[in-house]
Design goal:
single chain; mainly alpha
Length: 50
């Protein structure tokens, strides 16, 4: 059976939309688009050297 008192102790309120948005944007994450841009730039740099 669920012990509601224990579950309430574990509860953490969710962030407001503005706070969540700020927390997400402040993380420095590399995504696939960043990786592709880097790979293309490196490829162009190597071709320019030849």
């Amino acid at each position: 059976m669920i012990n509601f008192e224990e579950e309430l102790k574990k509860f953490h309120p969710s962030l407001e939309v503005e706070d969540a948005e700020e927390a997400i944007y402040n993380q420095d994450l590399t995504d696939m688009a960043d990786l592709l841009v880097k790979m293309i730039k490196e490829s162009e740099d190597k071709q320019g050297e030849q």
